[in-house]
Model the fold of this input.
Amino acid sequence: MHFVSALPLQSGASLRDYDLSFETYGQLNAAKSNAVLVCHALNASHHVAGVYEGQPKSEGWWDNMIGPGKPLDTNQFFVIGVNNLGSCFGSTGPMHINPDTGQVYGADFPVVTVEDWVNAQARLLDVLGIQTLAAVMGGSLGGMQTLSWTLQYPQRVRHALVIASAPNLTAENIAFNEVARRAIVTDPDFHGGHFYQRGTIPKRGLRIARMIGHITYLSDDVMNEKFGRQLRTAVLAQAQDASVSLDAGQYKYSTQEVEFQIESYLRYQGDKFAEYFDANTYLLITRALDYFDPARAYGGDLSLALGRATAKFLLVSFTTDWRFSPKRSREIVKALLDNKRDVSYAEIDAPHGHDAFLLDDPRYTGVVRSYFESILQSLEGQP
Amino acid sequence: MHFVSALPLQSGASLRDYDLSFETYGQLNAAKSNAVLVCHALNASHHVAGVYEGQPKSEGWWDNMIGPGKPLDTNQFFVIGVNNLGSCFGSTGPMHINPDTGQVYGADFPVVTVEDWVNAQARLLDVLGIQTLAAVMGGSLGGMQTLSWTLQYPQRVRHALVIASAPNLTAENIAFNEVARRAIVTDPDFHGGHFYQRGTIPKRGLRIARMIGHITYLSDDVMNEKFGRQLRTAVLAQAQDASVSLDAGQYKYSTQEVEFQIESYLRYQGDKFAEYFDANTYLLITRALDYFDPARAYGGDLSLALGRATAKFLLVSFTTDWRFSPKRSREIVKALLDNKRDVSYAEIDAPHGHDAFLLDDPRYTGVVRSYFESILQSLEGQP
Done:
């Protein structure tokens, strides 16, 4: 969808005109009351569910949660996924042409915030003729967008599902983002963010950024369970790779070669990510995370800040998520209860760390399913 | 101290000849029974206490713990600090000349392990005429050396003080080390570890490595308390820096500039470290951490592995240390108790994360002081 009227941004800048990529699933009912907006996190897009024709491996990033008969049932709900501005998966972003200069934006793409994304999503809904959402749903950074929807457009959101999220980043969260950004920005191939013209990609920095990210997505427990102190050679030997020497399982005593399986995993994840993710997008999205802080305008008082929200809420957190710990979700729950809002909260005892919000835990998916069933009943009960 | 006989290493390589830098404090008694060896961690040296003449800011890294009248009282004990092989603070390391080639070692410096360091320390004690240590003491990686002393030279150690340490690294620990190493190794100025000849220093990588390290040394709580979400401009304005604009406390909306105070702190720490620390040393020391695993030769059974130890033990851990958590110290305590060893264990409720072992917590320093007092009494009670 192309938008020709400028979008004013929180920074004071604006985007003169821009595109938003989006996908929809299911049917909008006659009352236009069954729309659910799904917001994405760092490394995801508008492609939330299903596969593209002839591409059996193109499952959407939340395909286990969204689809016909799934917890968010597209036989009942009209689901909308929107790629956020500044991303590298279709919507206008740093690798597109700045209409003011005729050059690729690069590092000149304006800083966008969670609030800006929500405004852009709201404009898209206007065009689609959807005034009120049955629900907004998101995990992690997507949960921040969901929370922001209830504050920026309280009358347009009936239910908010805020999963594995937080009311803002802690100093430690910001610190991890900053190290990742420094790795990218100080990569000689970054060229101040104008690497497209140079024909380079700051892959070294992107790899480091992704490796750091991966560590924070997983719990210590699940890392020990999946990798522990297993040596790479031992794993290859188990897989009966004929090229593995008889020394399998012995230390190589090397500082630069892969020794442990966890190293192999992280290097692989870093390499893969550096092939497709845009460095400027990484900076923009991590900054949007850093800046999000609805209590900031209220002297840090989250209860005051959430007073504007009128939606009903489901919050879900995961016990081993140390990136966005249950404590942070409980802060939101408390602030909503201080405002006497309708809040359900599930704290799932899951071993998978932050990644748990993308995985299939039957207690988790069961809670989401039940919540959407109750939303459906309330829709049917409407005049 | 120069050593002319080759030191065989665990890897199978050996160091033909080498120097060890060391310092001593206090007086060795006539019975040579009051010697205490203090082992250092990643970013430290043989200079454990005191200041150099005319250099009032040159305090040793454990100066709060070691000195006249301090918990480890140098009026009573003869304290020895040794710089480990591969370090960049005096002992033979990667920036020294390889006698076999006449060239700087660089990346060709052999991989050294905790066990190798202990062997080198034992040789130094031989030359000093010290057969038995009243105690070995160390925090973090220094605690690993302490534990290894009790296994490699059980008859030479009466007491072992293992502080904020672990019986091996977890997958997450190794993962953080690996990201830091990749940042260094992929820095174009690293040149495969032979950067000395090129006149370059891989400062970008060292900065990233140090920033990652710092995050893991601190607890989430203490980071929130010290930095929280404070903006750099607000901190500067509080310090009444005249160059700060009226926008102090407002977001700059920038992805590359310093916005939050935690970013400023981490960048400063990274810059400082990159000025003095050697990149090859960083690789070697983190690898020594990765490889340490006394239970490995016993099928992972730590109780079997620690059966060789005959020393008495004090273990100390800190509740908010997520790098070497109390759980890891308790594993050592349990394994020692399985062998019916004499073990004291203090789990200190401290907010400072892994860094706590270097800080002044009166409950912590009090425990160490009492332990050394009891060692002193046992020495005096000796024939």
Notes: Chain A has a mean pLDDT of 95. The first strand of chain A starts at residue 2 and ends at 3.
